[in-house]
Amino acid sequence: MKYAITLSSFGHSNEGLFRTLTRLQEQGYDAVELLGDPINPNINKVKDTLDTFDLDVTGISGKWGARVHDGTKFHTNLISYNPEFAKSCIEYTEYCLETCNMFDGKHVNICLTSDYQPLSMYEMTHGVESHFEKERIIENKILPVLTFLTRIAKDNGVQLLLEPLNRYCSQFCNTAAEAGTIAEKINHDSFGILLDTYHMNIEEASFEGAIEGTKKWFKHTHFADSNRKMPGYGHIEFSSIVHALKKIGYDEFICFEPNLSGDDFREPTKQGLDYIKKMEKSN
Prior knowledge:
This protein is α/β, with parallel strands linked by helices. The protein contains ten helices and ten strands.
């Protein structure tokens, strides 16, 4: 397998992109994953810097959920009852797809976040939302938009990948099985799913079952431990996950998506990578 890491994990760092990329290449990474930030005025500079390294770009991770940047709010909730916000999110997704093409990436993730939140936190976390209501929203609002965006993805030569989020982040797609059901309905080569071990640890009964059960649509994965740190710093048993990936014949990137904090983040990126590499060899 090949190994990547999300550059958004280094958002707190002051060391600069060139030094970060230099260290990651020296540590043994094969690629990086970019953050879709439409307010970033330096996108061409980022590309020029990346072109000086032997590092691929796996794709783009979207900033799903409304964000405020320098006092400017842009809306990235795919499920919105405000037509202007919904339009803004579609335009943002198109931007991510076009940027992915620009960097020769393969895919853009998409998450089903919403700015319409009628449920209390208790109702969200205990799953008392009506199954019928969820299905109605998916059929009437989500599927038409995802189908449209999948055509845009195809036009850009990239894939749109649905990433299930845990119940604290979304009401509408929490498990691999739910993502697989949506993928079956979209039924397009330019659409697939991305599974993130951090969210899976909360929602899935079995890592292996989730991966093997969605192998038809499984295109990419994010690795983070139970505490959102690099693998080996929490309690997730990654050996079974690596074994399941090998079992379904997955030979693409394992992309680490940790929260890195403090000044001493250089050691974890190396130790976590070596931890998974060693595990892959022994499986």
